[in-house]
Amino acid sequence: MAKTQPKMKMSAKNIAAGFLMALLALSLLGFGVEGFGGRTQNVASVGDRNISANEYARALQNEMRALQSQFGQAVTMEQARLFGLDQVVLEQLVTGAVLDNEAARMGVSAGDSTVQREILQISAFQGLDGQIDREAYRFALQNAGMNEGEFETSIREDVARSILQLSVVSGASAPEMIVTPLLDFQAQTRDLSVTTLTAQNLPAPVGLPDSDTLQAFYAVNQDNYMQPEGKRIAYAWITPDMVIDTLEVDEDILRSAYEARRGQFVQPERRLVERLVFADTASAEAALARINDGTATFESLVAERGLDLEDTDMGDVSRTQLGAAADAVFGLDAPGIAGPVETALGPALFRMNAILAAQETSFEDARDQLREEQLSDLARRALSDDYDLYEDLLAGGASVAQLADETEMRGGQIDWRPGVSDGIAAYEAFREAAQNLREGDFAEIGVLEDGGLFALEYLETLPSAPRPLDDIRTQVVADWQNTQILDALSAQADAVEQALRSDAEAAPVASVRFDGMRRTDFLPDLPRDLSAAAFEMEPGDIRRIEGTNRVHVLQLHGVQSPDTMLDDVQDLRAALARQVEQSLAQDLFDYFAASLRDGTAIQINQQVIDAVQTNF
Asked: How many of the other CB atoms lie within 10 Å of CB of 591?
């Protein structure tokens, strides 16, 4: 089998392109070579190689931006430290410097022609003609805090490290003694039968428990119905709905709002339309003829062009929007095909799918809607204006209770636990603030999703406690019924197992057989752990798996080794070999780099590192 190069090996072009993108991203943040003063400062010295503060800053910024992209929000330096990102970046730079030293010692280097070729292949430096744009090249490097010489040196070092890396890992191969057992594990198959028992197999349905029975079941299983620890919280809040009755809006404002949104309230007649454009009129006419004689449909014509119907969909359009095609499309009094019509894109056929009648909502009919919207907006603005007032009261020592007594805010208390979403807890902003609230915290004004304001005060901790039976009666009844069903099905499962062990010709319940099942196969309507259980069994074994309200009885009939002649097995073998080879190659390179580090003098300047991180 031909050897596949490990994925860890990157071409110098990829390395340089990735490095360049990091530099360009960094330049957008205004982080240049002058960020740490005029004199050169190094975060580390590794043998004959120095790692400058700017190298470290650029690499750290690049990793932080990658983490930010993963999380979807900005990442602070403190968060980066918590993830150990600063140490990871430093270790990568030190390892790179160690490899640079070794490459220099061995005389491994990249010539000018190689460096030139790698730079010419970086698309970020290419103009519209595909050739290198010298001005864009210089400008990008200047903004990234580098000159051409520094960047080209980095390319040369990247290529040299890549050559060194390839020389170390090129001999890595996947041993058969590792690949074969892995393949046998992954591709081995099982033949088994499954007998599934459900409530339908019971002689009579399970009824409802009486009050005493349910109470006793609840008491015995109380641990299953515990509420998590919570907090008793005092709060003051005010929402736009609470103040909207105190406001009024001028009639002229309502009329102005109506005119501004006239397009929403007064809509002309429209059509639901799809458009298919052709290269010339003859092609469009030929397509229309095929539709008319029944040898093609609009859908088939779209498919012939390699398009989807959504590519032709224009939505609901008016006469004005259709332009030259308006008369043809609006001339149809029922769904159908119009055209060909010459359009700005070329000759086109139009399929009209529905007629949407003109709609007009008068000012009088829209007045209540407009008034409600304007009042809601005024109420949100009024609360926004009062934000500083409430904030100042809290800063002056007012309690949450005093806010409710002395302002328009309303007060209350809530026993909040995770999962509570009633009343003020219906707001996500409140739930997040309640989750983070700690004893001794000072009250602060928060903003609700609808523009309302609130403040919280921690009163006491609520210990974990059982949920009241009345609140979860439906759940407890269902649990009791499932328990009764499982108890009844257990006796039937005993009979099924006895019949299977005695090789009875007719088992009490029919089973379903699965031959050639693999570990990754999904068995419809059966639990996922059933497949895992089957691969723990030996031929002839019988095992029982219980679900919420059903019982499965498994019997393993046989175990088959992988058929290496099958294409999918060969593909799996190749994939496993690649994984093993890549893992071994990575291990070889890690050992090589570690041995070089052990023999290299490394000095870390923590003061400069701290200075770099402070700039973030």
From this structure: 11
Contact 374, 349 (CB under 8 A): no
Beta pairing, strands 446-447 & 410-416:
unpaired
CA atoms within 13 A on the CB side of 252: 0
Residue of 136, 161, 131, 158 lying closest to 148 (CA atoms): 136
Q: Cα separation of 554 and 537, whole Å?
A: 10
Q: Is residue 427 packed enough to be buried (19+ CB in 10 Å), middle (13-18) or exposed (0-12)? A: buried
**Both tokens assigned to 247:** 């406001």
What is the location of CATH 3.10.50.40 in the chain?
Answer: 269-357
**Structure confidence by residue, pLDDT tens digits, 61-111:** 888 888 888 777 778 888 888 888 889 889 889 888 888 888 888 877 777
Residue whose pair of structure tokens reads 């979860």 in the numeric block = 472
Question: Could you tell me which residues come within 8 angstroms of residue 612 by beta carbon, excluding any fewer than 6 positions away?
Answer: 36, 43, 53, 56, 57, 60
CA atoms of 508 and 492, how far apart (whole Å)? 8
Cα angle at 452 between 451 and 453, to 5 degrees?
Answer: 125
- pTM over 0.90, yes/no: no
Length of the chain: 616
- Angle at Cα 28 formed by Cα 25 and Cα 31, nearest 5°? 95
Contact 183, 573 (CB under 8 A): yes
Q: What is the DSSP string of 334-357?
A: SSEEEEEEEETTEEEEEEEEEEE-
- The DSSP symbol for 616 reads -
Q: Class of the 269-357 domain?
A: alpha beta
Tell me the per-residue pLDDT of 35-69, one tens digit each, with 9 for 90 and over.
Answer: 444 445 888 888 888 888 888 888 888 888 888 88
User: Coil, strand or helix: which one is 114?
Assistant: helix
Decide if pLDDT at 272 tops 80.
Answer: yes
Indicate where the chain has its CATH 1.10.4030.10 domain(s).
Answer: 12-171+598-615
Domain 230-246+370-463 has CATH 3.90.1200: no
Kindly report the backbone phi and psi dihedral angles of residue 281, in degrees, each rounded to the nearest multiple of 5, phi listed first. Answer: -65, -40
CB count, 10 Å around CB of 456? 25
Distance CA 58, CA 70 (A): 19
